[in-house]
Amino acid sequence: MTLKVERLGHSTRLQEVSFAAQPGELVGILGANGAGKSTLLQLLCGVLEPDAGQLTYQQRDLTQISAYERRQLLGYLPQTPVAEGGIRVDHFLQAGLVNLHLSCPGKELNRVVETLQIHALLERTLDKLSGGEQRRVHIARALLGDHNWLLCDEPTTSLDLYYQLQVMAVLRAQADRGKLVTLALHDLGLAARYCDRLVLIDKGRLLAEGAPAAVLTDANLAQAYKIKARWLCTDEGVTLLPSLLS
């Protein structure tokens, strides 16, 4: 039941990134802009084909799985979803049920609506929503199907502080239910607070991977982000006060 990424590479960004992850883990993919986070997620979900390396999930070579099978296997939230214009939110979510083997699709739709608290948005059209509201709707669609593996590229983009915490709590709960959740994140405080494992990429190469405390070291942050950091820790979690390297 392990995800294994071995020396995975792609000519646009990624070079020889390797790590393993288990069901029940929330894995954060970190790195500066252009480091290769989105490329890695696109390779994992099959949007891109790797130039090198091996990618296996549950002992299956993911490059040999059809698009239809991937749809059953995983849920994916891209960094920039395709614009859907004037489609109503409820219709947009219903379209996400296509090609999913569900005995009660209506029940599944109600589950994600409740989970993301988007009842008030259902009869509105996507083009009339704020950026944060659209993001919550797209997250809801990625959750449809109750997949064992969820990939999210910057799920907290455009969200205010309340909904950032809500979305991270939802994703944490997915992992606690035994699912593998893999996210690209920019917010290091959220990554340290919610993730079990971090994968830090620098210029397309793996810089560090492991528990948050082992990855978010002064040396790694200086190399990957060109910052120094002060961490504030409380019983509720941690947050980061960054400053530029002098």
UniProtKB/TrEMBL annotation:
UniProt domain ABC transporter: residue ranges: 3-228
Keyword Translocase tagged: yes
One Gene Ontology molecular-function label: ATP binding
Entry keywords, A to Z: ATP-binding, Nucleotide-binding, Translocase, Transport
Entry keyword Transcription: no
Top-level division of the source organism's lineage: Bacteria
SUPFAM superfamilies per UniProt: P-loop containing nucleoside triphosphate hydrolases
CDD domains: ABC_Iron-Siderophores_B12_Hemin
Main function: Part of the ABC transporter complex HmuTUV involved in hemin import. Responsible for energy coupling to the transport system.
Name the UniProt record assigns to this protein: ABC transporter ATP-binding protein
Species name: Pseudidiomarina terrestris
Phylogenetic classification of the source organism: Bacteria, Pseudomonadati, Pseudomonadota, Gammaproteobacteria, Alteromonadales
